[in-house]
Specification:
about 290 residues, mainly alpha
Length: about 290
Amino acid sequence: MDQRLKRKLLGFQRNEISEYHIYSRLAKKIKGEQNSALLRRIAEDELRHYKFWKSHTQTDVTPAWGRVFRYVWISRIFGLTFGIKLMEKGEEQAQESYTEVLEVIPEAAPVLTDEDTHEHELIGLIREERLSYIGSIVLGLNDALVELTGTLAGLTFALQNTRLVALAGLITGIAASFSMAASEYLSTKSEGDGENALKSSIYTGLAYIVTVLLLILPYLIIPNYLLCLAGTIAIALLIILIFNFYVSVAKDYSFRKRFTEMAALSLGVAALSFGIGYLVRITLGVDV
């Protein structure tokens, strides 16, 4: 075996033993016996793969402990599905290396098939509450972004006073969050899912009100109303960016398409509302 191929196999070994420790640690910490059993099963696969590569390299390797700690904590903070799928996405870049190895070690095919299909199937069986209510979160988040970004843009030019805009936006946003939560509760219950109606409404309301607070923040700390509006739009785009990255990883959605749609909708409504605020101010002759 040449040194170049051996380095490649040692890299595979390190990856497998690192993921064995990641899945093993998550299996001990995660709630729910089904998820825990699935993680233990994947960990066993990773250890078996490690031993396979070791049989060819005749060398022991240590885990990449930094990677282990990083993905364990990402999974605990942002959710099991997100953490695991984010980690697995990094492996997709190794497909060309796998192809090269197969030419030299054809018996590695079952191991690579496990990596490509079996483990992904197991990951798809993981059940996580926050992802079950992603639709409710999207509803609250998207509605708050569109409505409040537009409202703040209109109020900014109509009032030209950061404190008044913050006050009006806060009152409007909090009232709207309660309204959206109530609507989601009634909608979910009317579909015959009374058991999850309350949780759906809570996720919708929380997503809405957190978004409201973030969008209003510039008006509480920046004195210039135009800079406040720019700050609000920047925060809106950042929220859209982070949320769509999370969803694209956790749910395997297209990041670019969803980001473009949400950003265009929010900015379009903001621009239209800004124009309406200007017209209302000129037409009514309001001067605050």
